[in-house]
């Protein structure tokens, strides 16, 4: 890659842009689809990109429709690629990998609880960070809603199944006196129908 | 209980996640990427919506983008960045300071090129000082979108040619003839339309004589 970049002195700006897109941002993609990139590595790659093409960073990563050059922002793409794993963890019903993670950590809900445990694998720790991507005040939980709803999966208090909030936060006092804090909707409904 | 009142429960369906993005419906990495991006105002979108689809060579396209963003290294820009220039007058006309809006629009020579273009199309030209305004006003009204797609491409080619000729003048010397720039524009625009669009059935001569009819004859099929 080094030789190619040094030849870049004589390439037009459009050529440089194309080269960056195809080499500098495409090369790490496979790696990024499974692992979280360390900040040092990201800075290094961004430095390479920026040395090669001198444009303001904001314009660089803006989509082409919005007047930028449509470069991939590596951190964001890293996060969204890892989000795919979270999504599959929650969305898929079967799969050996999912069963293993479910039995080891208790499924995707463990990502939401910010508990850190020594037994977490590195990859699981990465996913935990990705779940609440603090930089942009983005929570993965806000991107999906619950559907289907026989109520066996959804946890009555924790999950955001009514609107865009969880009942735990709104009815804090009720939650505190509740005897069954982890209950799913199903038994809660049964009980309310019986009484 | 009021909050829960309108929540329906379907017994036959398992709980599952549903992706909120209306466009994609299912989860895609791209739609998360969009969520992660900050939202930008829609003003630029009108300008740049079709910009990159215009039919012109990529190198000119990038130069045109830099002109629109006022990011092109004119002499005035270089001086501001601390480079010692012997002269900061425009190298096309040699009269005024070389700033973006002068070099590409109000300069005597480039204006001759633009008016040649208008004349060729049979239009009356207007000039704006602001690059973005000028690009917007360049669009023709009351024609098919495909015509404007080609005509916008011509705009890009002209800007690119002006820049190339300006550089040629600086680094290799020589004189600048607006007719030469204009003719090169015609040729390049024609060749890019020819190679980038399907169903082109006119010759270069047709293109020079009746540009509007040529542009109208093409149907753009969107992929």
From the spread of the alpha carbons, the general shape of chain A counts as: elongated
Tally of alpha and pi helices of chain B = 11
The count of DSSP E runs of length 2 or more, i.e. the number of strands of chain B, is 1
Mean of residue pLDDT of chain A? 78
Total number of helices of chain A: 12
Task: Explain what you see.
- The complex is a heterodimer of chains A (195) and B (223).
- By secondary structure, chain A is mainly α.
- Chain A folds into three domains: 2-72, no CATH class; 79-142, no CATH class; 145-195, no CATH class.
- Helix content of chain A is 53%, strand content 4%.
- Chain A is built from twelve helices and three strands, in the order αααααααααβββααα.
- Chain A has helices spanning 2-7, 13-24, 29-32, 39-52, 57-61, 74-91, 96-105, 109-112, 122-131, 167-170, 172-177, 185-194, and strands at 132-133, 138-139, 144-147.
- A two-stranded antiparallel sheet of chain A has the order 1-2.
- The model of chain A has no long low-confidence stretch (mean pLDDT 78).
- Chain B has 223 residues and is mainly α.
- Chain B has a domain at 61-70 and 100-216.
- Helices cover 53% and strands 2% of the residues of chain B.
- Chain B contains eleven helices and one strand; from the N terminus they run E-H-H-H-H-H-H-H-H-H-H-H.
- In chain B, helix 5 (100-106) packs across helix 6 and helix 8 packs across helix 9.
- Chain B is extended, with a radius of gyration of 24 Å.
- Chain B starts with 15 loop residues before the first strand and ends in a 7-residue tail after the last helix.
- The chains are: A mainly alpha (195), B mainly alpha (223).
Summarize the structure.
Chain A is mainly alpha-helical and 195 residues long. In chain A, 53% of the residues lie in helices and 4% in strands. The termini of chain B are far apart.
Key words describing this protein structure:
heterodimer; A: 195 residues; mainly alpha; 3 domains; two-stranded antiparallel ribbon; B: 223 residues; 11 helices; extended
């Amino acid at each position: 890659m080094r030789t190619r970049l040094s030849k870049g002195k004589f390439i037009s700006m459009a050529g440089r842009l194309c080269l960056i897109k195809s080499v500098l941002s495409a090369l790490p993609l496979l790696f990024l689809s499974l692992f979280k990139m360390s900040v040092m590595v990201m800075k290094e790659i961004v430095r390479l990109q920026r040395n090669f093409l001198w444009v303001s960073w904001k314009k660089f990563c803006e989509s082409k429709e919005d007047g930028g050059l449509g470069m991939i922002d590596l951190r964001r793409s890293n996060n969204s690629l890892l989000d795919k794993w979270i999504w599959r963890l929650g969305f898929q019903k079967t799969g050996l990998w999912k069963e293993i993670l479910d039995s080891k950590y208790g499924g995707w809900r463990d990502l939401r609880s910010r508990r850190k445990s020594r037994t977490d694998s590195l990859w699981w720790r990465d996913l935990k960070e990705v779940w609440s991507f603090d930089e942009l005040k983005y929570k993965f939980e806000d991107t999906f809603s619950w559907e289907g709803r026989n109520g066996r999966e959804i946890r009555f208090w924790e999950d955001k199944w009514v609107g865009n909030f969880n009942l735990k936060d709104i009815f804090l006092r009720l939650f505190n006196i509740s005897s069954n804090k982890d209950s799913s909707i199903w038994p809660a409904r049964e009980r309310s129908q019986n009484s | 209980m009021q909050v829960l009142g309108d929540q329906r429960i379907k017994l036959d369906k398992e709980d599952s996640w549903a992706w909120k993005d209306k466009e994609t419906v299912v989860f895609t990495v791209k739609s998360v990427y969009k969520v992660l991006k900050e939202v930008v105002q829609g003003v630029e979108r009108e300008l740049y919506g079709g910009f990159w689809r215009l039919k012109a060579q990529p190198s000119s396209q990038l130069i045109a983008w830099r002109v629109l963003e006022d990011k092109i290294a004119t002499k005035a820009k270089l001086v501001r960045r601390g480079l010692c220039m012997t002269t900061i007058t425009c190298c096309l006309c040699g009269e005024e300071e070389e700033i973006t809006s002068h070099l590409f629009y109000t300069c005597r020579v480039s204006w001759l090129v633009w008016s040649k273009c208008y004349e060729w199309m049979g239009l009356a030209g207007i000039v704006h000082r602001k690059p973005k305004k000028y690009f917007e006003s360049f669009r023709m009204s009351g024609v098919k979108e495909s015509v404007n797609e080609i005509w916008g491409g011509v705009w890009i080619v002209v800007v690119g040619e002006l820049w190339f000729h300006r550089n040629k003048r600086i680094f290799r010397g020589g004189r600048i003839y607006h007719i030469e720039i204009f003719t090169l524009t015609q040729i390049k625009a024609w060749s890019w339309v020819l190679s980038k669009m399907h169903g082109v059935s006119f010759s270069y001569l047709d293109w020079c004589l009746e540009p509007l009819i040529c542009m109208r004859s093409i149907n753009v099929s969107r992929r």
